[in-house]
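Lab meeting, action items carried over

1. Structure of the two-component assembly. Owner: GW. Status: complete.
Input record:
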Amino acid sequence: DGGITQSPKYLFRKEGQNVTLSCEQNLNHDAMYWYRQDPGQGLRLIYYSQIVNDFQKGDIAEGYSVSREKKESFPLTVTSAQKNPTAFYLCASTTPNPGQTGSGANVLTFGAGSRLTVL
Amino acid sequence: AQSVTQPDIHITVSEGASLELRCNYSYGATPYLFWYVQSPGQGLQLLLKYFSGDTLVQGIKGFEAEFKRSQSSFNLRKPSVHWSDAAEYFCAVGARGATNKLIFGTGTLLAVQP
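Predicted assembly:
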């Protein structure tokens, strides 16, 4: 079955270390997204990519970096510059043709998430 | 700018009772509207969506939502709640455009009493 795989599910990091969260999808989706979830704050967009080799900052990109070298992969690196990295991170993707106003637009499929804890 | 407000942080209902979760949005035109559900430690699952047409939309698990343009609302309802409905529910708004970015509300945590 098609879906989004995030790994690892749990990750512990010491302060000052960079960590990379993996996100792989086999849905043939063009667009991929990283959201951060904190209790009581909902989901906030970190980065998104609508096509291979291109990505844009979301609302809270500081301290994070991404790459999009392959259509199916969109890894997120949490750098040591991120002041409060402990959170639940969710990767999502969506169907092609993002400019459509039809039924396929904007429906995000989510992975199961990765929980990062800084010790 | 787009925004979504879910005024109820936490709601408790009895099993078999009806449910309504509130969602208000701010957007200059007719947006795309969504409800997602999240079980603890899991990703989000789409319950239903509104793009255009009939303002009452049906979703999975017996949920429905009604888009009311005059009130900028998209409230989620279920006539009879089951214990398995206990989860966190998120309303989201998307712009009609090229980016497919969604703006999420802060969520409503639903507890179901036996």
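2. GW to write a short summary for the group page. Key points so far: Chain A touches chain B at residues 4, 6, 31, 33, 35, 40-45, 48, 50, 56, 58, 90, 92, 94, 98-99, 101-103, 105-113, 115 (CB under 8 Å). The radius of gyration of chain A is 14 Å.
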